[in-house]
Amino acid sequence: MLEGKAKVEETDMPVKMQMQAMRIASQSLDLFDVFDCTSIAAHIKKEFDERYGSGWQCVVGTNFGCFFTHSKGTFIYFHLGTLNFLIFKGATL
C-alpha cells in the first residue's frame, strides 16, 4: 500500500476529502494492475459517487492533458507511485 506517499500538486478540496481521495487511490492500486488505469479510475469514481453524490470524474495515467470546469471544493490533482490522479465533480450549469 502506498498510502501516505502521495504528493498533492493542486487542490481546493477540504482536507478530509483529500485524505479520502488518496486513501481510495492507494487501495485501488492494491486491487488493480498499475497499467489498468481505466479500472483504477472507475473504482475511484464509484467510491466518490457513493460517498459524495453522483457527478464525479476521475482521470488516471502517466501523461495526460485536460481542461474542465468543476464545482468549488471538489478538485484534486496528485501523484501516487508512477501515476497521476485527477478527481473532480463536474460543475452544474
From TrEMBL:
Compartment(s) where it occurs, according to its Swiss-Prot or TrEMBL record: Cytoplasm, Cytoskeleton
GO biological process, one term: microtubule-based process
Entry keywords, A to Z: Cytoplasm, Cytoskeleton, Dynein, Microtubule, Motor protein
Domain of life of the native organism: Eukaryota
UniProt entry tagged with the keyword Cytoplasm: yes
InterPro entries: DLC_sf, Dynein_light_chain_typ-1/2
Pfam family, one: Dynein_light
Single Gene Ontology MF annotation: dynein intermediate chain binding
Any one Gene Ontology cellular component term annotated for this protein: cytoplasmic dynein complex
PANTHER family for this protein: DYNEIN LIGHT CHAIN
Family: Belongs to the dynein light chain family.
Protein name in the entry: Dynein light chain
Native organism: Capsella rubella
